[in-house]
Automatic annotation (TrEMBL):
Name of the gene encoding the protein in the UniProt record: ANO4
Family from the record: Belongs to the anoctamin family.
InterPro entries per the UniProt record, alphabetical: Anoct_dimer, Anoctamin, Anoctamin_TM
Organismal lineage: Eukaryota, Metazoa, Chordata, Craniata, Vertebrata
Keyword Transmembrane helix: yes
Bilayer-crossing regions: 316-342, 392-411, 468-494, 514-535, 563-584, 683-705, 733-757
Protein name in UniProt: Anoctamin
A Pfam short name: Anoct_dimer
Source organism: Saimiri boliviensis boliviensis
Length: 921
């Protein structure tokens, strides 16, 4: 201190003394903490006892250990062992943003928060700022934020229909004697008694504090709520005097602070068994009962997840668990459709004819270098196509459309129950906060809130519209970029197929289509990864340009943009293969070309459905594998590398006990956009499961297997590999529900087109009833399909080839003499007819049947969907009765409490002789 003051008195620059001044600042903070110890003594959580009681301190003191000494060792308290750490800020001493931090920290103290600083044991340049909120600050801001707290035990009542349900439960319990012990169930003896779920709650009020259940002020607000209140304060503190620059997020963006996070509640591992010694803390309990791989078959402890991570993360895992459970019937039916194809494969007349067609020579699939081929060479493809394209495909498509509706309708009911249990029914309208950025931007324009009657920042309608127009233009431009990238891939495919067919290596030359597809997928994947980086930045820029009013509006806007980009980016190639590949190629002798040069790509001789199946399988398997690796593998590798560097710096023989803030800082931070990546991965999977499910019935089964692993992967990641995220509240899954409804509607349309256009279901049906041996008899068995393959192929005269598409080979390798004719997939007249290569009558019959099927299928499925959504109420009847009963009881309790207060006041005034003769008795 003397060195600093003497340097300043000599007129030297204060920039030279910034490092020393920072050390002095830390010293002053330490002296302040010692001189004014915290009065908030938060009781510890002990093994086997996850609810703090007043006997904890006495038990510790009886064992020869005082509470502060115990608190000093676990890294969750200040040095005095009394002030619990509610939030951590991290910065580097070498960072030049000193003035902003000093102003920010000075304003933090002005708000009543207590602060203590600590240097890192690993890197002395890193400083940890520990924050604690006293009871007065917590109470003041809890009232301002309308934090709901318990105030009386719930009184439950059982409707009559519960008696009938109890009889069913008795019968089920008898059957369970034959099942394994506790299938899918949680071990209730290891879970804490979460009292807040058994209490009525109300917005906290200091004037009515006597109404709330307060056994101990130090434990009244749990750790997640305390951290949320401190974060709320930090988001509204200025970091520059005289300017409207506020918020911790901006300081994190400009690098003033490196990190900001709440602490985990200790280690997630313990030397003692949880069954014999109990859980060390809630994090340890979550690891044993939720994130451990040994409990993959059990239900999730959602109440504990909500208490530790907040309602928003709890709702995500509730939705993910519900979605996974609903996939069981869809996966079973899809597997049945696939097995039906396997069992009927030997009886399929179409695949038999393809495999036996050794005398049918197909025309080349590209110009010049592609050879002629026998139709029998595609025997394997024809058999694989039957596995996915059989008589049960239409039934499965209808089932999946209905399944999507049932899933969404029952999720609304499940969400309503969760929202009631977690007191989220009226949260959005009453408690959602305005973003600090919105307040700073429109602080000069205010209007009265029609609900609260308080002044609030206001955005003019013209300003909002202009920003939305610019944002929509940016979205449209980026979608055009995606379509342009897909068009580039299409050009690459049509150009390289002939190049690979002329390759010197026989392996590539004979598999030119496979080589083209493989390289195109690799290039497409690289383009997707590059564009994703650009999409994220553009979406962030456009969302901030719109200036959303609340955090939920910001998240919804950002989510919609990113979903549109990702969906178009990932599914454009799939839509191209399903509806455009091989549809507009023309016919031999008159091929359609790109820029009058490159011939458009054709389907395989066995049809286009096999290409769509391969695309779906590759995307679902590889993409989900890659996502799981990036979600868990990357944090594991990063955390392992950090621990390795620490061991190298301090020596493997020296064991250092790091405090909790040091351990958490070395973990990976949660995604900056919250649960966006987790939701996006599952929503895109839901799209693959429903949109093209008619072409790939095994999609629900693959999704189910992935989700069973995904739940535990996400749980393990949240508990062990990530810093503890801020506990945020949410009423539902947000805009994702609207996206799910949109995907459900789109799936009906796409499946109708897949069955009618991509699949051969309609052409086979028309042949069986109109042109086959059973025509006019009303039958459609396998015997009616005799001759279908020959009827679906047209004849082309080789001499009619264009010069640029005429193949180099003359086909003499098949019969010893040059070929005169080849076959191709289409319904056209032969070359010697009156109108050579014109459409036949069968083509128009097939086209009419396809259009009729699309119309009938869509109207039928949409009617079923609307009927189901009408018959299933959004709110269960028993929940509606409980809500009405609770509302009535709350009014009675508030009336009784107010009456009791008035009677006490009257007694006091009567005792003092101040009662007026006209006063109500």
């Amino acid at each position: 201190i003397e060195t600093l003051l003497s340097g300043v008195s000599r007129g030297e620059s204060t920039q030279d003394f910034y490092p020393l001044a920072k050390d002095v600042n830390i010293l002053f903070d330490e002296l302040e903490a010692v001189s004014s110890p915290c009065k908030d003594d938060d009781s510890l959580l002990h093994p086997g006892n996850l609810t703090s009681t007043s006997d904890d301190a006495s038990r510790l003191e009886a064992g020869g250990e005082t509470v502060p000494e115990r608190n000093k060792l676990n890294g969750l308290y200040f040095r005095d062992g009394k002030c619990r750490i509610d939030y951590i800020l991290v910065y580097r001493k070498s960072n030049p943003q000193i003035e902003k931090r000093e102003v920010f920290e000075r304003n933090i103290r002005a708000e009543g928060l207590q602060m203590e600083k600590e240097s890192s044991l690993i890197n002395s340049d890193i400083i940890f700022v520990k924050l604690h909120a006293p009871w007065e600050v917590l109470g003041r801001y809890a009232e301002q934020m309308n934090v709901r707290m318990p105030f009386r035990r719930k009184i439950y009542y059982l409707p009559r229909r519960y008696k009938f349900m109890s009889r069913i439960d008795k019968q089920i319990s008898r059957f369970r004697r034959w099942l394994p012990k506790k299938p899918m169930r949680l071990d209730k003896e290891t879970l804490p008694d979460l009292e807040e779920n058994d209490c009525y709650t109300a917005p906290f009020s200091q004037q009515r504090i006597h109404h709330f259940i307060i056994h101990n002020k130090e434990t009244f607000f749990n750790n997640a709520t305390r951290s949320r209140i401190v974060h709320h304060i930090l988001q509204r503190i200025k970091y520059e005097e005289g300017k409207n620059k506020i918020g911790l997020n901006r300081l994190l963006t400009n690098g003033s602070y490196e990190a900001a996070f709440p602490l985990h509640e200790g280690s997630y591992r313990s030397k003692n068994s949880i069954r014999t010694h109990g859980a060390e803390n809630h994090r340890h309990l979550l690891y044993e009962c939720w994130a451990s791989w040994g409990v993959w078959y059990k239900y999730q402890p959602l109440d504990l997840v909500r208490r530790y991570f907040g309602e928003k993360i709890g709702l995500y895992f509730a939705w993910l668990g519900w979605y996974t459970g609903m996939l069981f019937p869809a996966a079973f039916i899809g597997l049945f459709v696939f097995l039906y194809g396997v069992t009927t494969l030997d009886h399929c007349q179409v695949s038999k004819e393809v495999c036996q067609a050794t005398d049918i020579i197909m025309c080349p699939v590209c110009d010049k270098y592609c050879p002629f081929m026998r139709l029998s060479d595609s025997c394997v493809y024809a058999k694989v196509t039957h596995l996915f394209d059989n008589g049960a495909t239409v039934f499965f498509a209808v089932f999946m459309a209905v399944w999507a509706t049932v899933f969404l309708e029952f999720w609304k009911r499940r969400r309503a129950v969760i929202a009631y249990d977690w007191d989220l029914i009226d949260w959005e309208e009453e408690e959602e906060e305005i973003r600090p950025q919105f307040e700073a931007k429109y602080s000069k324009k205010e209007r009265m809130n029609p609900i609260s009657g308080k002044p609030e920042p206001y955005q003019a309608f013209t300003d909002k519209c202009s920003r939305l127009i610019v944002s929509a233009s940016g979205i449209f431009f980026m979608i055009c970029v995606v379509i342009a990238a897909v068009f580039g891939i299409v050009i690459y495919r049509v150009v390289t197929v002939s190049t690979f067919a002329a390759f010197k290596w026989a392996l590539i030359r004979n598999n030119s289509q496979v080589a083209t597809t493989g390289t195109a997928v690799c290039i497409n994947f690289c383009i997707i990864m590059l564009l994703n980086v650009l999409y994220e930045k553009v979406a962030l820029l456009l969302t901030n340009l719109e200036q959303p009013r609340t955090e939920s509006e910001w998240e919804n806007s950002f989510t919609l943009k990113m979903f549109l980009f990702q969906f178009v980016n990932l599914n454009s190639s799939t839509f191209y293969i399903a509806f455009f590949l091989g549809r507009f190629t023309g016919h031999p002798g008159a091929y359609l070309r790109l820029i009058n040069r490159w011939r458009l790509e054709e389907c395989h001789p066995s049809g286009c459905l096999i290409d769509l199946c391969m695309q779906m399988g590759i995307i679902m398997v590889l993409k989900q594998t890659w996502n799981n690796f990036m979600e868990l593998g990357y944090p594991l590798i990063q955390n392992w590398w950090t621990r390795r560097k620490v061991r190298q710096e301090h020596g493997p023989e020296r064991k250092i006990s790091f405090p909790q803030w040091e351990k958490d800082y070395n973990l990976q931070p949660m995604n900056a956009y919250g649960l966006f990546d987790e939701y996006l991965e599952m929503i895109l999977q839901f799209g693959f499961t429903t949109i093209f499910v008619a072409a790939f019935p095994l999609a629900p089964l693959l999704a189910l297997l992935n989700n069973i692993i995904e739940i535990r992967l996400d749980a393990y990641k949240f508990v062990t590999q990530w810093r503890r995220p801020l506990a945020s509240r949410a009423k539902d899954i947000g805009i994702w529900y609207g996206i799910l409804e949109g995907i459900g509607i789109l799936s009906v349309i796409t499946n109708a087109f897949v069955i009618a256009i991509t699949s051969d279901f309609i052409p086979r049906l028309v042949y069986a009833y109109k042109y086959g041996p059973c025509a006019g008899q009303g039958e459609a068995g396998q015997k009616c399909m005799v001759g279908y393959v020959n009827a679906s192929l047209s004849v082309f005269r080789i001499s009619d080839f264009e010069n640029r598409s005429e193949p180099e080979s003359d086909g003499s390798e098949f019969s010893g003499t040059p070929l005169k004719y080849c076959r191709y997939r289409d319904y056209r007249d032969p070359p010697h007819s009156l109108v050579p290569y014109g459409y036949t009558l069968q083509f128009w019959h097939v086209l009419a049947a396809r259009l009729a099927f699309i119309i009938v299928f869509e109207h039928l499925v949409f009617c079923i969907k609307h009927l189901i959504s009408y018959l299933i109420p959004d709110l269960p009847k028993d929940l509606r009765d409980r809500m009405r009963r609770e509302k009535y009881l709350i009014q009675e309790m508030m009336y009784e409490a107010e009456l009791e207060r008035l009677q006490k006041e009257r007694k006091e005034r009567k005792k003092n002789g101040k009662v007026h003769h006209n006063e109500w008795p």
